[in-house]
TrEMBL record:
Gene name in the database record: gcvT
Ranges of residues in domain Aminomethyltransferase C-terminal: 294-375
Function: The glycine cleavage system catalyzes the degradation of glycine.
Lineage, highest ranks first: Bacteria, Bacillati, Actinomycetota, Actinomycetes, Micrococcales
Domain of life: Bacteria
SUPFAM superfamilies documented for this protein: Aminomethyltransferase beta-barrel domain, Folate-binding domain
Keywords attached to this entry: Aminotransferase, Methyltransferase, Transferase
Name of the protein this chain belongs to: Aminomethyltransferase
GO biological process: glycine decarboxylation via glycine cleavage system; methylation
Binding site for substrate: 201
Organism field: Pengzhenrongella frigida
Family: Belongs to the GcvT family.
Catalytic activities: N(6)-[(R)-S(8)-aminomethyldihydrolipoyl]-L-lysyl-[protein] + (6S)-5,6,7,8-tetrahydrofolate = N(6)-[(R)-dihydrolipoyl]-L-lysyl-[protein] + (6R)-5,10-methylene-5,6,7,8-tetrahydrofolate + NH4(+)
Domain GCVT N-terminal span(s) in chain numbering: 10-268
Length: 380
């Protein structure tokens, strides 16, 4: 099957991007170098094409109630203009996908799914919302998503926002969004992101994406804005301790396993005030009150070789046969100057400060358990 092309595909090709298949799409891995793009986002700003993400609209008088049943979060309590990180779980509590949901009106929500899970999320939401006065509409093909992330993001984005919208866009709080005109284009402008930096994500009609990219690129040039690909996005989110579906999250993992139990709202109630039996509630309630068999931790490398996804975590360099976990994500950290990784390990070795080892291609590399995230952006 042919890969889906982003509305910005011609832009990426003209910029000389290395294009790779990703979740059924052809997407830019990098434009120049992974390091240069990563550093630019931390120091100035990067512009990302996220048009592969899925956008699913849920509308109707009972849209909020439908999402309360379908997802683990309490979406009906979300104020208009706010966003929430949440998850859709299987009946057994396993994570089907992690999502960001925006409430765009009293009776309207925008559900943003990972590209790899778009089809399954859409297939799950339809039946789960069927018993409510709510309609589920897939808007992914008609929608482009562009992110500007980094300490100069606000200056760049507001410089191309219509005058009447500048103050509102500049004053957006984290995990909020509003409609605004950007470079003459109607957009949903959200202060969200996946890099650990300040920034915006802009949802626009697919056909408007090239014009918006060009306007943002021109506006960002004096500030050091560079195009950034999937590779930099991955190393940035790892430093920020953000999970990636397929690595830290999957159907064998509950939100509690991943240290994200806070997104599960077991106290949700239905219209009559009774506890809401949302999808996965029973197993999730049981998991909350049980001892974990594994814990997601951060690991800092004490040597120079980076651990990678799937590598075994060992109790020590001397105990090569004592496997206590596995790496979910790992890479050298450009910001911190040493390797970092996330891993699921057994509870008895999960305390911060515990020294372990990782089997890196047959050689035990020393690591130490550290608190997540690895990186927090400095106050500016």
């Amino acid at each position: 099957m042919a890969e889906i092309l982003s509305p910005l595909d011609a832009v990426h090709v003209a910029l000389g991007a290395v294009m790779v298949p990703f979740a059924g799409w052809s997407m830019p891995l990098r434009y120049t170098s992974d390091l240069a793009e990563h550093v630019a986002v931390r120091a100035a700003a990067g512009i990302f094409d996220l048009s592969h993400m899925g956008e699913i609209r849920v509308t109707g008088a009972q849209a909020g109630a439908a999402l309360d049943y379908a997802l683990v979060g309490n979406l009906s309590a979300l104020a208009v203009g706010r966003a929430r990180y949440t998850m859709i779980c299987a009946p057994d509590g396993g994570v089907v996908d992690d999502l960001v949901v925006y409430r765009t009106a009293d009776d309207e929500y925008l559900v943003v799914a990972n590209a790899s899970n778009h089809d399954v999320v859409l297939a799950e939401l339809g039946p789960r919302c069927a018993g409510f006065d709510a309609a589920v509409t897939d808007e992914s093909a008609q929608t482009a998503l562009i992110a500007v992330q980094g300490p100069r993001a606000q200056e760049i984005v507001t410089s191309v926002v219509a005058p009447q919208d500048v103050t509102a866009v500049a004053e957006l709080k984290y995990y909020t969004g509003l409609p605004a005109t950007v470079a003459g284009i109607p957009a949903l402008v959200a202060r969200t992101g996946y890099t650990g930096e300040d920034g915006y994500e802009l949802f626009v009609p697919a056909e408007s994406a090239p014009a918006l990219w060009a306007a943002l690129t021109a506006a960002g040039e004096p500030f050091g804005l560079v195009p950034a690909g999937l590779s930099a996005r991955d190393s940035l989110r790892l430093e920020a301790g953000m999970p990636l579906y397929g690595n830290e999250l999957d159907r064998t993992t509950t939100p509690y396993d991943a240290g994200l139990g806070r997104v599960v709202k077991l106290d949700k109630t239905d219209a009559d005030g009774a506890p809401l039996d949302f999808v996965g509630r029973g197993p999730l309630d049981a998991r909350k009150h049980s001892e974990p068999s594994r814990v997601l931790v951060g690991l800092e490398g004490l040597g120079r070789r980076a651990a990678r996804h799937g590598y075994a975590v060992l109790r020590s360099a001397e105990a090569a046969d004592a496997v206590v976990g596995h790496i979910t994500s790992g890479a050298p950290s450009p910001t911190l100057g040493h390797p970092i990784a996330m891993a699921y390990v057994t509870p008895e070795v999960s305390a911060v400060g515990t020294e372990l080892a990782v089997d890196v291609r047959g050689r035990a590399e020393p690591v130490r358990v550290v608190a997540l995230p690895f990186y927090r952006r400095p106050a500016r």
